[in-house]
Task: structure prediction
Amino acid sequence: MNPPKKAAIHRQSEEQAQVHGQQQTQQPAVLEFATVEELLRHDASNTPLPPNIAQRLEDSARQLPAPQRRSWWRRLFGGPHP
Amino acid sequence: MNGTVNKPLAERPEPSPGSSQDYETVQSQPGLNSPEFAELYTENSKAIYYLALRLLGDPQKAEDATHDVFLKAFRKMGQFRGESSWRTWLYRIAINHCRNLQQAWNERHMLSNADDFVFDTAPAPTDSPLRVLETKELGERIQRALDGLPPEYRLLLLLVADQQMSYDQVATLTEQTADAVRGKLHRARKAFTSLFQQSA
Result:
């Protein structure tokens, strides 16, 4: 009558190992940084750039006033800038 | 703590006589969609955003600041004379911009002088590794520790963390010698480590 009992114990330990494994995967990883700068570099590399900055920049640049043209004599003789 | 970081930095070298921005300079400025500006943005926008985020401590303000910095860079690109790297030039604009925002905020909220910052000087070993859990709160912990530092220490740590920046470049940006940067960095690391460990 021993074999079934052994199998049950084996299955139970397998289940325990599975649960233990799941707990391990849920735990956050421990990170180690030798310096403050390393920590900040890690933080910087994990900080995403907001995607809409480029679009906002393009919209803003479109609204910039066109540059004023200086008259030829001002450019030649160096008068005040407009 | 001296007031170095509170002094405005020159955003560019003074133009030589007769070379001030004129029509030709503006005309020679590359467009926003030009490969030059696109490359400048691609290579530096993440670093500028991160600096603004950690100096201002607010993602929306950092986004606005990054936009403003690059718009300013776009308008002044024709004046860049190559006396520093593009990254250094952009950092200079960003530091001044963030400083102006902070000063305006401080004036509105009647905050005390930066020299009055008090932080725990309890011994914190700088040579022992920092062990942290990889969680989404890590950024918040870093922000809290940075916020507890005097502004000059905060800026030095953020600039030195950028591997593209040499000590000499950081020294130029913060208007001091490289030796002064090294000395202050030692104290900045110690203060940060102490504050970071307290925030656990």
